[in-house]
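During the second year of the project, the team shifted from modelling isolated chains to modelling whole assemblies. The rationale, set out in the original proposal, was that interfaces cannot be judged from single-chain predictions alone. As a representative example for this report, we include one of the complexes processed in the last quarter. Its constituent sequences, exactly as entered into the pipeline, are reproduced here:
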Amino acid sequence: MLLAPRVWGSVRLGARGLAGRAPAEGRKVDIAGIYPPVTTPFTATAEVDYGKLEQNLRKLGTVPFRGFVVQGSNGEFPFLTSIERLEVVSRIRQAMPKDKLLLAGSGCESTQATVEMTLSMAQVGADAALVVTPCYYRGRMTSAALIHHYTKVADLSPIPIVLYNVPANTGLDLPVDAVVTLSQHPNIVGIKESGGDVTRMGLIIHKTKKQDFQVLAGSAGFLLASYAIGAVGGICALANVLGAQVCQLERLCLTGQWEDAQVLQHRLIEPNTAVTRRFGIPGLKKTMDWFGYYGGPCRAPLRDLSPDEEEKLRLDFTSNGWL
Amino acid sequence: MLLAPRVWGSVRLGARGLAGRAPAEGRKVDIAGIYPPVTTPFTATAEVDYGKLEQNLRKLGTVPFRGFVVQGSNGEFPFLTSIERLEVVSRIRQAMPKDKLLLAGSGCESTQATVEMTLSMAQVGADAALVVTPCYYRGRMTSAALIHHYTKVADLSPIPIVLYNVPANTGLDLPVDAVVTLSQHPNIVGIKESGGDVTRMGLIIHKTKKQDFQVLAGSAGFLLASYAIGAVGGICALANVLGAQVCQLERLCLTGQWEDAQVLQHRLIEPNTAVTRRFGIPGLKKTMDWFGYYGGPCRAPLRDLSPDEEEKLRLDFTSNGWL
Amino acid sequence: MLLAPRVWGSVRLGARGLAGRAPAEGRKVDIAGIYPPVTTPFTATAEVDYGKLEQNLRKLGTVPFRGFVVQGSNGEFPFLTSIERLEVVSRIRQAMPKDKLLLAGSGCESTQATVEMTLSMAQVGADAALVVTPCYYRGRMTSAALIHHYTKVADLSPIPIVLYNVPANTGLDLPVDAVVTLSQHPNIVGIKESGGDVTRMGLIIHKTKKQDFQVLAGSAGFLLASYAIGAVGGICALANVLGAQVCQLERLCLTGQWEDAQVLQHRLIEPNTAVTRRFGIPGLKKTMDWFGYYGGPCRAPLRDLSPDEEEKLRLDFTSNGWL
Amino acid sequence: MLLAPRVWGSVRLGARGLAGRAPAEGRKVDIAGIYPPVTTPFTATAEVDYGKLEQNLRKLGTVPFRGFVVQGSNGEFPFLTSIERLEVVSRIRQAMPKDKLLLAGSGCESTQATVEMTLSMAQVGADAALVVTPCYYRGRMTSAALIHHYTKVADLSPIPIVLYNVPANTGLDLPVDAVVTLSQHPNIVGIKESGGDVTRMGLIIHKTKKQDFQVLAGSAGFLLASYAIGAVGGICALANVLGAQVCQLERLCLTGQWEDAQVLQHRLIEPNTAVTRRFGIPGLKKTMDWFGYYGGPCRAPLRDLSPDEEEKLRLDFTSNGWL
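Output from the structure prediction step:
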């Protein structure tokens, strides 16, 4: 699945080297904050549209994000070739503000391919790698297997690793005991938790509190609850369209304005569900079109929303006062 | 399943009449606060031990609870006869402080039996009825069916109804749209949410905010997060053993001391999981023995913990500083 | 839930005593054959309609069934009082042909209630008891707990016990190792398997082949495959309306006419799914009305089919040539 | 994920052209029979061991299989690069007997990548392509999306397409209505059904009987039942070690010797479960070592069996008389 390094040797490397990004002794990199998981824009003939990508980045760059996640689930990474995955990251590295973090999804099914992709992501400018759990053989993905996988990747990676647990896509929950063990690795800095189980999140935070390990919420739907329980940020699909509002929710939580935070959180739940579980990436991209970004089509087999679905999607935004 | 009224005619009615508990015009009863779901003590020969029940109540009465839940899932209600269910509630009504609320589980599989049990619970002194979703025919338990069920029960009940959603036991999630519809009923005052999905809880709170409808967390594991998102209390198995601590968590949340709340919440997650999902009622009862209450055996087919399980249970308390 | 014996002392006992039904030394009772799980007819005001029950029995009595299952899931047993459960069995015992077997559902959540109900069912004329897995506390229903439960019931029952595994209703699969252990009990004669997993059924048959233990398919949808793998019959909701056809499928399988059996089996799958998983008991009862039986309403919270559902239900029968 | 054609231009094309394999007018290719899903042997350093592959093929070539499946789930295809996937197929094409069929797994997440991989598989000598359902975005993999995906692939493929439904790996069931629609495509010849739901299989066979569409069982555990219901063969992991026995079961079924078939089927269930659901590919490869094939290690994150697992695996074979 992975190419030999020379094949993608022509990909432009990120302007920033890796110096300073390797795990310093003592303190790990701080990933606290809000990130949109950037979508991959396609032309009508399903080519990656790098122009639109940069255009989106310019608009997203005005929002006070901590950084950008590239090739998360919302980036349609399983539909991209290795070359495309790296090229997209490289372009975003160029286009994004220099003071933001770039978290690049580098998970593959095999440990070897994940190691190679992580190295490549580092070469094209990623600040950290977001590594989804391998899942095709989920029946054998025990704690021991997953600990071994992530340890190998973290050992060999020049950039910090963020674990990525997203059971809706993988049909798999990275066991808490595996997370606790992995939190002790000097090159594993945190986890993106997309399952929405705050009891689990609280337990992870509690059991890793001596480890300099950070938890990011994987969705805006439970962002306030995640902050309340000790998470330090979120990677939120909704931030692609309501980025300012998600960042505002962050500020309200961080400054202890919980009542205002609650009001805002409530208004974000339905829009968030609409662009994630309910209508998926086609819903997110359609909404981006409404909010002045380029959404465009998905690659097949993902399909455009039906008119009926589009109407329901719109209602989830209008009924909460966002459109 | 239900007896004719004359059969349990001999059951002692609660000292308090129903006056003042029927839904007043305008404002529904306020159920905010912390409740332990009281266990049912059995003798070695599996008879209800009313003496131990009263003894437990006396000790629980010293904790600043809002009230008591009787015949929730932790009360082993599916193992009790109708007569026992009512007798237990009657006894607790006598034994408990007069200023506390008594929420009695009255859910049965059929609507008719649920109506009758609710009426009976009111007669023996319940202040409100906690009605679990019927679930044996879960494939047909649509929103429409559940709305019809609860509406009928609420129409005919002299005491307020609290919906009870506990998917771990029922294999069923009461749909949010059904909850929203039911929240408009003048005799339905809230919901106990045991699933732990705070996004769902937030949505329910958001969509019922004009309805004078209250949400209680069904477990201590996500109590802080529930308060953060707008819940008003919790019915927590753990409160049977760490009642003061759960009430302290409530106070910290209500007074905005979120940092202290977080520390406390973290220490409660493992003990909570231990007495609920991990070791169930046998785990809870064993822990009660440790904390000066009478736990005792469960009715069959529930079985005592093995020595190995008991050791793990103890570790979940000792490692968090509670034993 | 259970009444003291005197309460149902007035229920008419079945004409047949229990003599000869207790497990003979050496050989267990033979339960091979086809059974309809009889529905419980209700009047418009939700009373049990015993007249219609007897009328249905007369018509069902002309089909070459091995016997009748009463108070299986299709009998709406969770909606009946204990008195009704026994009265229904008693009436069917009177109305049914003397040479047929009566299998009565006697499962309750507690072991004690199940023992008592089984004794009562024997008293009112049941030939064997069909005992569903307790399930409300499914998280603790380990092999050990279920083995203990069924052993106790079988030890104390004057009539043979048939295990009943129906994961669609219980959310629980009786573990194969528990079935194998229980098959050695002299008073446990077989299992009704409703899950449709023929690999599991084959394994049970293989591992109990020295035990004089019989497996019945729990649905007509996989009846042929069950015979092929070694099952000896079926308890099939569809037999309430297409009883002759289900019995014909039995004969084709038993006489090795597999090609004709296959053609017939294929035509039964959609109607079978329609009256089980797809439209449940309301679908079965509606179909009974079409086929000259009395179906009538279900007890709440089960609801009548919508006109649209009814149309789809009809299509599942007409498109296969049954209406 | 896919390479440009020139990259793998050096891969040796299969000796056989595609002539005669394109869908003839009228009659589709007949895929009836038994196939082992060939494993991919690796060296101690996780390189593909082509020598061992050919050695295994020679031994497998003596069994009366209809052909070989390459890059099914047991081939660890998600762990292979595109180049490796094609090279493995090419090598097997050379090594295998000329009169056997080669079914090559060509499924990828995107429609475009699947089309390209299918074309490549045809070029290196595959007779038909086995296309697994895309699954990462399973929440959006509606019937419409899957019909569109497979139609596109079948339209553009020079070789026939076999649908591949394996919910244990994909968390997704290809809807029956989609299968029925797709069965009408002239270049879609059948389906591999690995879920083990024979009711579903029977329904598919029934509803496609006018379509010249064949169903293969995806496991030896329910092979007899599948033949009984109308399937025409099987792709069985167990055939990698007990190939002669699986072929004998086929013959017994095809010649109507159902009693002998049943005895044999029963003895194969536990070994089959052991090398599939219970111990996965590590279990299958370990067993291959015992039976005179080269099993060897899996690629990470799959791990070797523990000594305890290995003992249980062995017992599943010895207790049924195979070792």
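The two ends of chain B are 42 Å apart (CA to CA). Confidence is low (pLDDT under 50) at residues 1-24 of chain B.
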